[in-house]
Amino acid sequence: MNRFFGFLVLLLGIALVTNCTNDTETKRAELTVTPNSITFDPNVAANNIVTVSSNTEWSVSPSHTDLKLDKNRGKDNGSIAVLSIPAGKSYTFTVKTITSNVFTNEVNTTVTVTRPASGGSGDSGGGSESGGDSGESGEEPDTTDPNIGKVVYKESFGTKSISSKTYADTYSSWSTTGSGAESVEYTSSGATVRNDDYGSAGKVGTYAGASGGVYVRLPYANNWLIVNDITLPSGSVNYSLTIGGGQSADDLDIYLGDGTKWVALDYENATDYNKWALGEAKFTLSEPRKTLSIRIVAPKEYQHGANFDDITLKVIEEGGQIINIAEGHSPGETGDDTVDVTKMSWAELPMMDDDDLQYVAHFAADAVGKNIRNFSMGFDKSKKAALWVAYPIHTCYTNGNAGRTEEWGYDPKIQANQQVNLEKSYKEDQSTGADYNRGHQLASADRQASKQMNAQTYYYSNMTPQQSAFNSGIWGTLEDKVRSKQCSDTLYVVTGVHFDPKVKMPEAVDADGADAPVPTHYYKVLIRTKSGNTGKAISECSASELMAIGFWMEHPKTNKSLDKSYKEYAVSVEDIEELTGHTFFPTAPAKVKQSFDISEWKF
Questions:
Q1: Sign of the CA dihedral 191, 59, 246, 450?
Q2: Which of 42, 74, 420, 548 is the most exposed place for a label (fewest CB within 10 A)?
Q3: Would you say 183 and 231 are in contact if contact means Cβ atoms under 8 Å apart?
């Protein structure tokens, strides 16, 4: 994508203001349910479905326990299937919007479900005594699924001894079996594979048949694991999914889908957190499918993570919740972080027009559990480093006590073999006078609102080999000063590195002994409103309402800081654009980037 086209995409994107106080703007809940009454048809499931249209979450409450429905809650647009009701009965169920700090009003609708005592819609009684089209014998054709009892997929995560946690995207000792297991692949974000005393057969309770040993942990909110492309037996629609979990069903979300659309699955599990139990969900596919994927998500943050083990999918005689994947949500609509960052118009993003870079965005839970963008980067695989990391700074990121999680690990969105291994810090030839730290580009101290938010700053993709005295000296001072310039309107920052091919730096290697290119320069560029409280996006502001500044520093070849004050390295944003070839803050007026006034920033 050339620069001009990229600029047009950014200008045409929806302007987003990241002032966190605006995220709680109240809205009116809407709800439409059709039809309001149905006559239950035991032979045609499609006749027993009502459609829900809404803009928020909703709950479903039957008036009697004998009225069986496929779900007890949903979100936005969806459907509710009546599974069974005794003959000769008429019951109701109520669909009600769930109030929140955003949707404060409640809307509800009642649906009546009736099943005649005999005859009527769909019942077999009341017909002629002759066999009719069913044959002279009058016998019903055998429609029993020949696959009943077949285990389609089973995973116990292996028995490999793991000395420490391993990220699921680098794990290779899966124990996948079942008739549909051959085509299965795993993808994940933040999921770790563990082998310790806290597994399904460990010291926090167990269940019959628990494999023990290795299990999966989702440490933070919105971490996930996807089991992709389980091959299903032909014609089968009724299934049971069981999963061993160390938490209640409210603490672990399960979705069924095709990799593009996802439907939430209702299931029963433990009633107490950190106590293992075997949960089960019975479901019926709205139509036979060739493949099915399972997506397991941690909806919030936990003291000991969301843990699971022993997943089994098998064909059963009678299903349950109706799963219509065509009516599911895309990943972005389910609140996770699978968005195309190149289509975003966030104020901090540079122009993304370099085909040699991989563009990545990370999302994380804030202090109240809301999933918000954390940071983005342009990653250079040849340098095994991000050339820039872009992020907002606001109290909704910096306020909190997450501390330093020290959750060092590979970035789950970038292939591990394209990153440095920083399980241990860089190594260097001491005779050169170098002493390299694992230097953050987005500082740990800039992300304190939640542990997940902070843990993502420890991805190896956010690190570069940085002289320790420089890191703790002038660079650390600059980080602190930049953080102090946050405002209600949000401060937008890009931190980056530069590799001057004419300058030779002392070499560094990672924990595997592989080369880790050393930057020759570090920089930061900043932009915000002058008043700090306009309530406007950067793209909506005039040049007179904005201020921008940059800092460009040479990276010492030996372990020392720089002699001058950080203020002496202030330059215009345009100066750094010319040095790096990047275009920063493309939604801002060009005039703002052409000059700087350090006194205006009050550094």
A1: positive
A2: 42
A3: yes
At the fourth CATH level, the homologous superfamily of domain 3-16+344-601 is: Extracellular Endonuclease, subunit A (3.40.570.10)
pLDDT band at 65 (very low <50, low <70, confident <90, very high): confident
Non-local (6+) Cβ contacts of 430 within 8 A are none
Q: Which tokens is 70 given?
A: 């496929």
Model pLDDT, residue 271: 61
DSSP string, 10-57: HHHSPP----GGGGG--B---EEEE-SEEE--SS-GGGGEEEEEESSE
The CATH fold assigned to 24-123 is: Immunoglobulin-like (2.60.40)
In 149-290, beta strands by DSSP E: 151-155, 166-167, 176-177, 185-189, 192-195, 214-218, 224-231, 238-245, 253-257, 262-264, 277-285
* Region label for 129, one of left (φ > 0), alpha (ψ between -120 and 50) or beta (otherwise): alpha
* pLDDT confidence band for 483 (50 / 70 / 90): very high
Single out the residue of 520, 584, 581 nearest to residue 550, CA to CA. 584
Q: Using the structure block, give the residue that is written with the tokens 């699955």.
A: 265
**Cα-based angle 282, 284, 290 (whole degrees, multiple of 5):** 115
- What pLDDT does residue 301 have? 67
3-state SS, residue 258: coil
**Fold match flag (3-16+344-601 vs 151-329):** no
Contact 154, 209 (CB under 8 A): no
pLDDT value of residue 134 = 40
Q: How far is CA 600 from CA 19, 354, 592, 596, in A?
A: 22, 33, 13, 8
The token pair that represents 580 in the structure block? 């790096």
How confident is the model at residue 346, as a pLDDT?
92
Listed range (7-21, 32-46, 52-66, 481-495) with the worst mean pLDDT: 7-21
Q: How far apart are CA 198 and CA 216, in angstroms?
A: 11
CA 65, 71, 73, 76 dihedral sign is negative
Residue extents of the structural domains in the chain: 3-16+344-601, 24-123, 151-329
Domain range 151-329, its CATH number among 2.60.120.260, 3.30.479.20, 3.40.50.460, 3.40.980.10: 2.60.120.260
> DSSP label at 471?
I
Across 127-131, 460-464, 509-513, 564-568, least confident range: 127-131
